[in-house]
């Protein structure tokens, strides 16, 4: 059942006396002293950050509600989502929950398009409003210094992976070398990881006494974000530019051999 605000909002609370109408107008100021009627508890969060695809909860705490009704409205299109515990939208991701003085709008599988302002309304005359702003973020990871890192043999490989746009830290961060999970207690030794969780999570991979076998593709895999990788080259006294030129020469010679092979096939064809 789809429903938009129109005459419904104008009809809420009609027939109340002048005294109650004046009280409702006073309650439009959330910082006004409490009256016998409903008022919002301003201790709650009015800025909510949700992970993409993870259920979000928008809370509205109303004291002394009495026989009034709480509704949730989406500001973007003035769409009435819920009234009391009833849902007034065909989008079944939305659902109202009630616990004591808390009236919660639950949103399952939030997408970027769901970001914006949501209004909690109480059916006084005029109606009281409490706004909650929803931000939907998608965590991302990044390895500093990429896409290629050149290290001298015997030096320490120090890789830093940061996890951004995450309202909560990842449960774990896994490091891989050439698609294999790095073992910190392997016979190679000298490998350690330090992860500092916070608003921005940082994970540090340290590999002491770098050797040529440590070259390859390293990737950082947070539990709540896509993996990111970096190519590490352990040098045996070579200059990075010389390595790149050697790689380009090898690529060009391989291409030439392939071309000559195709020409031979054409000449031998009947």
From TrEMBL:
GO CC field: neuron projection membrane
Ranges of residues in domain Ig-like: 38-135, 139-231
Region feature Disordered, mapped onto this chain: 11-36
Short name of one Pfam family: ig
Tree of life domain: Eukaryota
InterPro entries reported for this sequence: Ig-like_dom (IPR007110), Ig-like_dom_sf (IPR036179), Ig-like_fold (IPR013783), Ig_sub (IPR003599), Ig_sub2 (IPR003598), Immunoglobulin_dom (IPR013151), Zig-8 (IPR037448)
Sequence intervals crossing the membrane: none
GO biological-process terms attached to the record: synapse organization
Protein name: Zwei Ig domain protein zig-8-like
Higher taxonomy: Eukaryota, Metazoa, Ecdysozoa, Arthropoda, Hexapoda
Gene of this entry: LOC117644701
